[in-house]
Amino acid sequence: MDEGKKGEVGVGSGIPAARRLSCTKCFDILWFCYSPFHQMQQYYRYGDFDNCFAKWHDLYDCLALKTKKSSEVEDILVARENEKKHIWTYRTVDEASENWLKMYSRFLSTNPPETNR
Length: 117
Fold this sequence. Notes:
InterPro entries: Pants/Emi1-like. The chain has one domain (3-85). Helix content is 51%, strand content 3%. It contains five helices and two strands; from the N terminus they run ββααααα. It starts with 7 loop residues before the first strand and ends in a 13-residue tail after the last helix.
């Protein structure tokens, strides 16, 4: 196997050193974003269509990384991976309470429902 072709990788996937950066995954995600299925799913779930700006940014970022040297790309991807907050990082009680209220406060009612017994 050639050293530069050990596997196709999307942006920020965390696969070790010798890798070939591929923007195919970013393009596929962008293409799917404009599909009627995805747009209707977003409208059903969130009440608004997806403008796909984040997917455009990811594709542009991937294409920009393709213009850099492989050592620079490696450093950039490692730095990005280290900047991400780990998924299992715990919140303090105050942070968790604030986040819970931000996400679910619309379900809280000031008047409890009346029960007919």
